[in-house]
C-alpha cells in the first residue's frame, strides 16, 4: 500500500498508527508488555538497544543483550543469559514480573535467567527501563531503582559504570570475558578488585593473576587521555559509602567509548571511529613485552620507561641464572638488626603480595618494616582525598619476595631493605659511575697512545696477565660448588640395617605418602626414615632432582632432610629425628596437654605460620604443602614446631602453583572446600588447613573428632557460632583458659576463622597471617561465615528420620539424635 493511494481523511489515522507502532521500540517494559524475539527497546537518546540476538547469524542460540543502536558493527556491551541461551527453534520472551524481577524464558515457559530480587511487597507499575547510559534498570513507581545491569557487568565497562575495588558490598562483581568472538559464555578471564587488599585491580586467567594495576595511592584521577580530535577520557577512583570503585567518564559529544575485557584476556579501551567504521584501540593491558604478571620473576621488575620495556633486577640484586625466569637474587644477605638500611626506588609500580597495615604514619610504617627481620620493603601513601574514614594512611609492607614490580612514569616510591653496605654502594652508583666513565675515557686515550708505541711487547704482557689471573678464579668456583648443596646418598643396605629391616617395632607412624621408621645410622645418630609408598610415578633420576631441590629448603620451622636413597622401586628419605613426636600426640591427649600452656601454643602457631610462609613465598619454589595437619607438625626438644612432609606434593607430581588434580591427597577435615570438592588447590588451600590447625590448637578439639561438638556438625561451625555471638572464649581449651591472655587467644580464633572462609580469595596469604600474629595492634578483618559446613549440615537434616542414625560426614562418623 502506498501513501498516494490513501484517501486524505485516513492520513491522520495512519500517522497515529505508525506512532503506536513506534512505541514497539520504546525504552521500557512493564508487566503487561513483555519483549519477544524481534522486538527491541531503544534508549531515549537512540544510542543503545536491547533485545534478543544470536551472536552468529545462525539461529542456534539466542540471548538477551544490549548493543549500540547506531554503531554499524554490531557490538554487545551486556548479555543477560550468557550461560543459558535459549536454544534453537523456541523464540523467547523477556518480562518484568509483578514482584519486580526480570525473567527470560523460552517458548515452553522455562526460566533461562532471572534477576532474583526477593522483592515481594505488592507493587504495581514496576517497569524496566533502558537508560541513555546503557544501564538497564528495574524501577519502582516511586522512582527507586532496585536492580541495575551496571551492577552485574558482562565484559564491558561503559562511561559512568562503577567496577568495585572493595568487597564489603555483596554486589561485588567482576568483568568476565566472552569465551570466544561469537560465544558470550563466561570464560576463564576475569577482572576486578583484588579482595585481599581492596586496593588494586587484577586480571585473572582462571585463578592465576595475569595482569595487575599498581595499588591505589589516593589519587582520584588515575589517568586521563586526550584524543587528537579533542575529547577527554578520565579514569577515576570514586568512593560510594565505604566502598571504592573504578570508573571512567568522557567529555560531552565524544564518540562511543567502552572498556572491554576481550576473550583473549586483553583489557582494551576502545573508541568508535565513524570514518573507518571500526573500534580503535586507545590503550590495552597487558602491554606486550614484560607487563604480564610477575613476568620478570621475584625481585625483578619490568622497566616501562625504556623505549622497549625490559626486565631488570631491583638495586642490590642480580639475575639468578641466564634470564629472568627465576628472577633475581640478593648480592648481599640481609643482616637484620642494625645491619640493614632502606634504599629509595622512585617511579615504581608497587609489587604484589603486600600486607596492608592500617593507621600508620610514614615513620611508623618504616618502623613496622625495620622491626621484622623478614620484612623486605615498604611503601607509603596518603589517601587524603579518597578516604571517608579517619585513617588516611596506606602503609604496605612486604614479608618475603617482591613480585610483579615495575617502573613507569607516574610510579611511586618503594623503600627497599638492603644490607647497609649495599645501600651505600647502590646510592653512590651515580657519584662513582660518572668519574669512572671520565676516567675510562682518559685511560683509553692514554693507552691507545701507549699501545701504538709498544706493539712489540704486547704478547708477553698478555700471557703474564692470564697467568696471574688464574689463582683468583679458584675461590669463585668453590663458591659455586658450595651453592649446589650435595645431599648425601645413603645406600639401601645401610638403611635396612639402621631400621632393623623396617621392623614394625621401629615404625613411628604412617601417612598418605608412606611409613616412617626410626633408625640409627653409623655413630648412633638417630634419624627418621620415610619409606615412600610405591605409586609416586617418578623415576629415580626425577626423584633425585626433586629431593635436591627440597633439600635446599632450610628453615627452622621445617624438618631437615639429611639424605635420600633409591633402590629398585624403593624411594627413601632420611630426616632429622625429633624426640618429641608430633603435635597431635600432645594436643589431643588429656594426660599430656598440660605441657602445652598458652605461651607454647602461641609459639607453635607462629612457628607453623612462618614455616608455611617460607614454603609459599620465600623459597624459590612455591611449595604447597597440601597435607598440613597436627600429625605433620613435629616438636623439637624446646617445643619448637617443625613442619614435616613438605615437598611431598612435588614428589608425587603436583608441582604447579595452582592446579586441578584428579588425585586428591590430604586429610578430610583439613581440606579446603574447593580442594575436597573440585580438586583445585593453591596456597590458599594451605591457608585453610592452617586455619583448621589453629582452631584445633586453641580449642584442643580434633577436627575429625567423632562426636558432635555441642550439637554442631564440625569444629568450624562451632567456632563460628561462638565467635559470632561474642562467646569465642568458650572455645578455648579448658586447661589453659585461666592462664592465657584473652585478647591474644581471641585474635587467634578470629584469624583462624579468616583462614577457613569458603572463598579462597577471601582467605589471607600466609604473609598477612604472620603479620597479624606478630603485631597485636594490626587490625583483623571480619571473617565471613564458612557456609560450606552449614550447608553440609542442612544436607544431613534433609535426610533425617525419627530414629537415631549414623551418618558418615566428611569421612567422620557422627551420631545424630532427632527427638520428636
Ligand atoms: C552475518 O550477516 C551479516 C550481514 O547480514 C554479515 O555481514 C556478517 O558477516 C555475518 N556474520 C557471520 C558471522 O556470518
Ligand atoms: C547515527 O549515525 C549517523 C552516521 O552514521 C549519524 O549521522 C547520526 O547522528 C547518528 N545518530 C545518533 C542518534 O547518534
Ligand atoms: C500483575 O498485576 C496486574 C495488575 O495488578 C494483574 O492484572 C496481572 O495479572 C498480574 N500478573 C501476574 C503474572 O500475576
Ligand atoms: C532470594 O531468596 C533466595 C532463597 O530464599 C536466596 O537464595 C537468594 O540469595 C535471595 N536473593 C537475594 C538477592 O537476596
Ligand atoms: C520506594 O518504595 C520502596 C518500597 O516500597 C522503599 O523501600 C523505598 O525506600 C521507596 N523510595 C523512596 C525514594 O521513597
Ligand atoms: C578454564 O579452566 C578450566 C579449569 O581450570 C580448564 O579445564 C579449561 O580448559 C579452561 N578453559 C580455557 C578456555 O582455557
Ligand atoms: C591462561 O591459562 C591457560 C592454562 O590455564 C593457558 O593455556 C593460557 O595460555 C593462559 N593465557 C594467557 C594469555 O597466558
Ligand atoms: C586533594 O584535593 C586537593 C584539592 O581538592 C588537590 O589539590 C590535591 O591534589 C588532591 N590530592 C590528591 C592526592 O588527589
Ligand atoms: C630461561 O632459561 C631457562 C633455562 O636456563 C630456559 O628453560 C627458559 O626457556 C628461558 N626462558 C626464556 C624466556 O628465555
Ligand atoms: C589511629 O591510631 C591512633 C593512635 O596511634 C588512634 O588514636 C586513632 O584512633 C586511630 N584511628 C583509627 C581510625 O583507627
Lay out the secondary structure.
Layout: H1 11-22, E1 28-29, E2 35-36, E3 40-42, E4 48-53, E5 61-68, E6 76-79, E7 86-87, E8 93-96, E9 102-105, E10 111-114, E11 127-130, E12 136-139, E13 145-148, E14 156-157, E15 163-164, E16 175-180, E17 183-193, E18 201-205, E19 208-212, E20 221-226, E21 232-240, E22 243-250, E23 257-261, E24 267-273, E25 278-285, E26 300-303, E27 310-313, E28 317-319, E29 328-330, E30 340-349, E31 355-357, H2 362-371, E32 375-382, E33 393-399, E34 405-407, E35 412-419, H3 420-427, H4 429-453, H5 458-483, H6 492-498, E36 507-511, E37 514-520, E38 526-532, H7 540-551, E39 561-567, E40 570-576, H8 583-587, H9 598-618, E41 633-635, E42 641-643, H10 648-651, E43 659-660, H11 673-678, E44 680-681, H12 683-699, H13 715-724, H14 742-755, H15 766-774, H16 787-798, E45 805-809, E46 812-816
Parallel strand pairs: 26-34
Antiparallel strand pairs: 1-11, 2-8, 3-4, 4-5, 5-6, 5-7, 8-9, 9-10, 11-12, 12-13, 14-23, 15-22, 16-17, 17-18, 18-19, 20-21, 21-22, 23-24, 24-25, 26-27, 28-29, 30-34, 30-35, 31-33, 32-33, 32-35, 36-37, 37-38, 38-40, 39-40, 41-42, 43-44, 45-46
Bound molecules: 2-acetamido-2-deoxy-beta-D-glucopyranose (10 copies).
The site of one 2-acetamido-2-deoxy-beta-D-glucopyranose has 4 residues, from loops.
Amino acid at each position: 500500500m502506498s501513501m498516494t493511494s490513501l484517501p486524505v481523511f485516513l492520513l491522520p489515522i495512519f500517522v497515529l498508527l505508525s506512532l503506536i507502532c513506534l512505541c514497539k521500540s520504546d525504552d521500557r517494559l512493564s508487566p503487561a508488555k513483555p519483549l519477544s524475539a524481534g522486538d527491541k527497546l531503544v534508549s531515549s537518546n537512540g544510542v543503545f538497544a536491547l533485545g534478543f540476538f544470536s551472536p552468529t547469524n545462525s539461529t542456534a542460540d539466542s540471548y538477551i543483550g544490549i548493543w549500540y543502536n547506531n554503531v554499524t558493527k554490531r557490538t554487545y556491551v551486556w548479555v543477560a543469559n550468557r550461560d543459558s541461551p535459549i536454544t534453537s527453534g523456541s523464540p523467547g520472551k523477556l518480562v518484568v514480573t509483578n514482584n519486580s524481577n526480570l525473567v527470560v524464558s523460552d517458548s515452553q515457559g522455562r526460566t533461562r535467567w532471572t534477576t532474583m530480587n526477593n522483592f515481594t511487597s505488592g507493587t504495581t507499575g514496576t517497569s524496566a527501563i533502558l537508560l541513555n547510559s546503557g544501564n538497564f534498570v528495574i524501577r519502582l513507581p516511586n522512582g527507586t531503582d532496585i536492580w541495575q545491569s551496571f551492577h552485574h557487568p558482562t565484559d564491558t565497562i561503559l562511561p559512568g559504570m562503577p567496577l568495585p575495588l572493595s568487597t564489603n558490598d555483596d554486589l561485588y562483581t567482576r568483568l568476565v570475558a566472552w569465551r570466544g568472538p561469537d560465544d558470550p559464555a563466561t570464560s576463564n578471564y576475569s577482572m576486578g578488585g583484588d579482595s585481599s587488599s581492596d586496593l588494586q585491580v587484577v586480571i585473572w586467567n582462571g585463578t592465576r593473576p595475569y595482569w595487575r594495576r599498581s595499588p591505589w595511592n589516593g589519587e582520584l584521577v588515575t589517568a586521563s587521555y586526550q584524543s587528537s580530535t579533542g575529547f577527554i577520557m578520565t579514569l577515576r577512583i570514586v568512593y560510594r559509602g565505604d566502598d571504592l570503585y573504578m570508573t571512567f567518564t568522557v567529555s560531552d559529544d565524544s564518540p562511543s567509548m567502552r572498556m572491554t575485557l576481550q576473550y583473549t584476556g586483553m583489557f582494551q579501551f576502545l573508541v568508535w571511529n565513524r570514518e573507518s567504521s571500526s573500534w580503535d584501540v586507545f590503550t590495552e593491558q597487558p602491554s606486550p613485552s614484560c607487563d604480564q604478571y610477575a613476568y620478570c620473576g621475584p625481585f625483578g621488575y619490568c622497566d616501562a620507561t625504556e623505549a622497549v620495556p625490559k626486565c631488570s633486577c631491583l638495586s642490590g640484586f642480580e639475575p639468578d641464572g641466564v634470564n629472568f625466569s627465576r628472577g633475581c637474587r640478593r648480592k648481599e644477605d640481609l643482616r637484620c638488626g642494625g645491619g640493614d638500611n632502606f634504599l629509595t626506588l622512585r617511579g615504581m609500580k608497587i609489587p604484589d603480595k603486600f600486607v596492608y597495615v592500617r593507621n600508620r604514619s610514614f615513620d611508623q610504617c618504616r618502623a613496622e618494616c625495620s622491626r621484622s627481620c623478614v620484612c623486605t620493603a615498604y611503601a607509603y601513601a596518603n589517601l587524603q582525598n579518597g578516604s571517608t574514614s579517619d585513617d588516611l594512611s596506606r602503609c604496605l609492607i612486604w614479608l618475603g619476595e617482591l613480585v610483579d614490580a615495575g617502573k613507569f612514569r607516574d610510579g611511586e616510591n618503594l623503600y627497599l631493605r638492603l644490607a647497609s653496605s649495599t645501600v651505600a654502594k647502590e646510592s653512590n652508583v651515580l657519584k662513582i659511575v660518572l668519574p669512572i666513565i671520565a676516567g675510562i675515557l682518559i685511560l683509553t686515550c692514554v693507552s691507545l697512545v701507549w699501545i701504538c708505541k709498544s706493539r712489540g711487547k704486547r704478547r708477553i704482557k698478555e700471557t703474564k696477565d692470564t697467568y696471574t689471573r688464574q689463582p683468583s678464579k679458584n675461590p669463585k668456583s668453590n663458591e659455586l660448588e658450595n651453592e649446589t648443596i650435595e645431599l648425601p646418598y645413603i645406600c639401601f643396605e645401610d638403611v635396612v640395617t639402621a631400621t632393623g629391616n623396617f621392623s614394625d617395632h621401629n615404625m613411628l607412624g604412617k601417612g598418605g605418602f608412606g611409613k616412617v621408621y626410626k633408625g640409627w645410622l653409623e655413630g648412633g645418630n638417630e634419624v627418621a626414615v620415610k619409606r615412600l609408598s610405591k605409586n609416586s610415578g617418578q623415576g629415580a633420576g626425577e626423584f633425585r632432582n626433586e629431593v635436591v631441590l627440597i633439600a635446599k629448603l632450610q628453615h627452622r620451622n621445617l624438618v631437615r632432610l639429611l639424605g635420600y636413597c633409591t633402590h629398585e622401586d624403593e624411594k627413601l628419605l632420611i630426616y632429622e629425628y625429633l624426640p618429641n613426636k608430633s603435635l597431635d600426640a600432645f594436643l589431643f591427649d588429656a594426660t599430656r596437654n598440660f605441657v602445652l600452656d598458652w605461651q607454647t601454643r602461641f609459639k607453635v602457631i607462629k612457628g607453623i605460620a612462618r614455616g608455611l610462609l617460607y614454603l609459599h613465598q620465600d623459597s624459590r619454589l612455591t611449595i604447597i604443602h597440601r597435607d598440613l595437619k597436627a600429625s605433620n607438625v613435629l616438636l623439637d626438644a624446646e617445643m619448637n614446631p617443625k613442619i614435616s612432609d613438605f615437598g611431598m606434593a612435588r614428589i608425587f607430581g603436583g608441582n604447579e602453583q595452582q592446579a586441578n588434580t584428579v588425585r586428591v591427597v590430604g586429610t578430610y577435615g583439613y581440606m579446603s572446600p574447593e580442594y575436597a570438592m573440585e580438586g583445585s588447590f593453591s596456597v590458599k588451600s594451605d591457608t585453610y588447613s592452617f586455619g583448621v590447625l589453629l582452631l584445633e590448637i586453641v580449642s584442643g578439639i580434633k577436627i575429625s573428632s567423632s562426636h558432635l561438638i555441642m550439637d554442631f556438625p564440625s569444629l568450624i561451625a562451632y567456632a563460628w557460632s561462638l565467635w559470632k555471638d561474642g562467646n569465642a572464649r568458650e572455645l578455648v581449651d579448658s586447661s589453659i583458659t585461666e592462664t592465657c591472655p584473652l585478647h591474644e587467644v581471641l585474635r587467634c580464633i578470629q584469624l583462624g576463622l579468616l583462614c577457613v572462609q569458603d572463598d579462597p580469595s577471601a582467605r589471607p596469604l600466609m604473609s598477612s597471617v604472620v603479620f597479624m600474629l606478630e603485631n597485636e595492634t594490626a587490625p583483623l578483618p571480619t571473617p565471613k561465615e564458612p557456609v560450606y559446613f552449614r550447608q553440609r549440615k542442612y544436607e544431613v537434616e534433609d535426610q533425617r528420620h525419627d530414629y537415631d542414625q549414623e551418618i558418615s560426614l566428611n569421612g567422620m562418623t557422627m551420631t545424630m539424635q532427632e527427638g520428636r
